[in-house]
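Objective 1b of the project was to move from sequence-level analysis to a structural picture of ligand recognition. The entry below was assembled by the postdoctoral researcher (A.K.) and checked by the PI before modelling. It contains the amino acid sequence of the target and the SMILES of the bound compound, nicotinamide-adenine-dinucleotide.
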Amino acid sequence: MTKRLHGKTCVITGAGRGIGAAIASAFVREGATVIVTDIDGAAAEREANALGAKSFHLDVSNESGWDALHSLFPRIDVLVNNAGITGFETHARPQNPEHASLSDWRDVHRVNLDGTFLGCRYAIKAMREAGAGSIINISSRSGMVGIPGAAAYASSKAAIRNHTKTVALYCAEQGLDIRCNSIHPAAVLTPMWEPMLGDGPEREANMAACVADTPMQRFGQPSEVAALCVMLASDEARYMTGTELTIDGGILAGSAAAPTRQV
Ligand SMILES: NC(=O)c1ccc[n+]([C@@H]2O[C@H](COP(=O)([O-])OP(=O)(O)OC[C@H]3O[C@@H](n4cnc5c(N)ncnc54)[C@H](O)[C@@H]3O)[C@@H](O)[C@H]2O)c1
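Corresponding predicted holo structure:
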């Protein structure tokens, strides 16, 4: 049977670990030529070597990094803008709308939003000659609802959701078969959660608290997000553009519809 991504060249950002690494692995399994990129060049290289893929050191917020990627890979079929930060990676400063600092706000937007803008711009250029391709932007459930404790993260993810639609419409207007869609995961168990879960005795309770409002009562798996990316990257999704797919254990289907709640 032909593999679903046979013959496609795919770039994935932030693929040194977590969801990005799972996407890279699924794409390789489906026959793609994969370029694993990450700000952590060593992690990208490790992951690429394990998969038989290529690696490239890329900080998505750095415009000249994208130019360098374009020189090496001027034509691609798929870009997954996956790299993202919450702002909690390096310190536990407040990220609510009253106390967040302007520099923390900007740091999160620089990676999540500027990185996605630059990625889409690169992808359109790298797909234009073939006139077709798929851009997949990893947004979040947090881009669809307010998140008081993570204002910059939520704002940046909401902007990604909107920019996805702008890119989709722009490409269609240009007569290009370049599709652009966003994926909105809720809690997916990756290293991103580690600073919030801790590794002490409170870890289990923290994990349960994180999914208390999720109807399916569990974290998602990176491979479950990767499966959606395979579909959007493949020709099976050739009529899908400008859309948003949630993968969230049901949380956005209702208003915090915990299964224990009776009314
Ligand atoms: N894990 C979740 O629960 C969840 C939920 C919704 C959305 N998301 C989104 O999914 C994406 C992946 O999340 P994850 O959980 O795998 O995160 P993660 O922290 O485990 O991995 C993120 C990767 O991105 C890389 N990265 C960070 N800054 C970068 C930059 N400037 N340039 C390039 N790479 C950079 C990191 O080195 C790391 O390898 C993110 O956009 C995140 O916002 C995650």
